[in-house]
Amino acid sequence: MKVTEEKIQAFEQASGRSVGRDSLAGLEAILGNVPDVEPFTFFGYPDNPVFLHPCGTVVDAREGTDLWGQVQAGECDCENTAPWMRIYVERAK
After folding, report:
1. How much is the pTM?
2. 10-32 pLDDT, tens per residue?
3. What are the beta bridge partners of residue 86?
4. Count of CB atoms within 10 A of residue 72's CB?
5. Where are the alpha helices (DSSP H) in 3-87?
6. How far lies 76's CA from each of 1, 13, 18, 69, in Å?
7. Cβ-count burial 19-37 (b if 16+ within 10 Å, e if not)
8. How many CB atoms lie within 10 A of CB 9?
9. Which of 1, 11, 22, 56 would be a feasible disulfide site paired with 31, CB 3.0-4.6 Å?
């Protein structure tokens, strides 16, 4: 995946965080190992919110379930406790 200035600006605008331009070579090297996107079926989307963990795990979770509690607590199978980010997906036509 090629990291472009437009992608960086979009990320910075969406997240409110700044990306160090000197670390782009390392970022491109990491992203080069990321496999192509694979189709993902969400069980309850659009009724269930979809979340992305920093490790790359994507889930849809219904409020009141065990999975919902894990998402709210930042828990993931990768054992890295970090906040999940709510994402929005486009339905395939």
Report:
1. 0.52
2. 777 777 777 666 666 666 665 66
3. 51
4. 13
5. 5-15, 24-31, 66-73
6. 25, 26, 25, 11
7. eeeeeeeeeeeeeeeeeee
8. 11
9. 1
